[in-house]
Batch of 2 targets.
Target 1
Amino acid sequence: METKQTEPVTIISLRKLSLETPETQPKESKTFTVEDAVETIGFGRFHIALFLIMGSTGVVEAMEIMLIAVVSPVIRCEWQLENWQVALVTTMVFFGYMVFSILFGLLADRYGRWKILLISFLWGAYFSLLTSFSPSYIWFVFLRTMVGCGVSGHAQGLIIKTEFLPTKYRGYMLPLSQVFWLAGSLLIIGLASVVIPTIGWRWLIRIASIPGIILILAFKFIPESARFNVSTGNTQAALATLQRIAKMNRSVMPEGKLVEPILEKRGRFADLLDAKYLRTTLQIWVIWLGISFAYYGVILASAELLERDLVCGSRSESEAESEVAVTLPDTEESHSPCHCHMFAPSDYRTMIISTIGEIALNPFNILGINFLGRRLSLSITMGCTALFFLLLNICTSSAGLTGFLFMLRALVAANFNTIYVYTAEVYPTMMRALGMGTSGSLCRIGAMVAPFISQVLMSASFLGALCLFSSVCVVCAISAFTLPIETKGRALQQIK
């Protein structure tokens, strides 16, 4: 009886073993995503080359934008322009930027970041050269508007950098790109101080076009974004790009097969206003608009303060006498309310010093972004920007004015650094370029309004203009502090 009782148990246990054994035999094949590959490969020589080439797009963009500030006094004099006409030049440049920023963002999410970046540089270089042959004010405005359209596509360089950088390096490498904007700003101011008094503003524009043309040749060394390729189903191209990066960095690829979902619907405006991102998008738009308004307000106000002596004690009598006065013939044009006030050497020095301020807070900005987070860091710098705008109203010496402008440039540059990083990180790949494009477009609305405050309202009511700039910065500080998503240490999202 005992034998009969134990035998069924033995049979059952064998059956259990036979049933369990097949379940453990199949092995699942390993897979990885682009995010896994980027993190595994790590930071290396490819990223240094990427940083230098894509970062140099900031040099070209800064030269084209800052060109307006240094050329304004010359064209005001040459074509007998009134204040609103000078302001209109800058406004139309940013109008072109605003319209095409959305268009290029839409196309970049659908057809690729690299293609749009190349097209924007070819467009910008072509119309920039044509600007130097402008026969009249109307032609100058039109051609600079076309340049603004081209420059709007340069933001794709930042997106390519963002999508290739490992998570822990984004908070350090992206803010360092400010160095290139600084280099471009200093280069155009330095060139203007030498070229304009000798061979004229037209040659300044031609020389300023050279870096953009050279950079076009360097784009062939940078591949299309691997994240974009997998989103379109072009997995082989993405894999080849990642393998090339791993080889260049002397690193290894993760084991397994590259697998990512194909995103059929990319670059749709409806996604930006989806319930998940609606509040984030609206607050980002407010912040971009305000930061741009303050940034270009500072740049144009700096030139205006120096050109028109709007702040008491900003220039000594001896320096004022060194201004070049242009005497017009006794015609109807000679009765124009416009007066020619060309920049003196000391003015160029002040512009250079204040521009260097853009890099002054960069180390603190990087620390703030990585330790305090994107939102808190941005709210602090925006609050300080509001304060320093009001301090400009203090009656001070030339050195004091330079100091205030130095700090303002440092703060507004830090604001731009942080919002660029945040916007590139917060949106998923399927709408990242469109998110940057629409933000850049709203940004240019602020830039379009800034000239009329810095170059028109400031002449009528200096304190009123400063209070307006300060108030906008306070609104942006509050909006930054209440952003719903913090992107510090967050992996880039592929889909919503």
Note: The chain has two domains: 30-261, 266-309+341-495.
Target 2
Amino acid sequence: MGIQRAQRASLALTLNYVAFALAVSAVTTSYWCEGTRKVVKPFCMGPVKVKQTYCIRFNSSNINDTRLVQYIYETGEEKFLMRKFHAGIWFSCEQTVDLIGFDCRSFLEIAPDHERGVLWLCIVAECLYIALLFTGGAMMVIEMCPCFNLINRLKLNAFAALCTALSGLFGMVAHMMFTTAFQLAVQLGPEDWRPKTWDYSWSYLLAWGSFGTCMGSAVTALNHYTKTIIEFKFKRRTIEKKLRIEQKILELDMPEDLWYITSLQEQADQHAALYVNGSEPSCFNPTILDNWDREYC
């Protein structure tokens, strides 16, 4: 059973590390949402030696000559350009005019003025999510240190499970707030930013994957805590029952062999009850539990 406890603690810590890595990756990237914007092509400037699809060409490169009749070749949808963009909590980036790089600006500038409070709450919740997740992981690491006794490790495990579960709640609220803030920006944001098409991207999936892993870590840590408490209470009840039997033996002055048989029968009945209830007994020592004061069997 000690090995199973160590495995549960290691699993909870591993899930916490994975959730923390996914959360940091999601928050520090700007690919929560991506899509395209439909913009009018700018006019090509200077001599045009090769065909350029990202700007509107005139029939003559000398656009300052008023004696020439200028006309363009693009008609209909050809006059428009579909620029890719991606946005995150901190920045929103859009392709440049020549479609080579990206120009970025703060997402706070894009969000409507009366809705920036939602985005600020999202940022605060994400920071609390990462901070509490890190705190829970640190407690799990300290809990695995062999220098602490069982009671102190149980306390650390309980606080670690609480911090991890609370961080998951903050993460869920933060992700939902960003979704709301982005949808408001799409509808009420500046005209030079509103996208034509958009969808959630890989950073958004990382964020929700981090939330799911975080809650898995919290459940595993809580399961480790509750199972240890149940086993601890069972051992305490067994010790108390043994002491009562010994007290009765001393009072009745029973022979030592009869005391041995009675105690062995009591222990066998208790382990049989555990098997009937679907639980596996932690240990069975036919030499009448001389070392019940140990932490693990």
Note: The first strand starts at residue 33 and ends at 40.
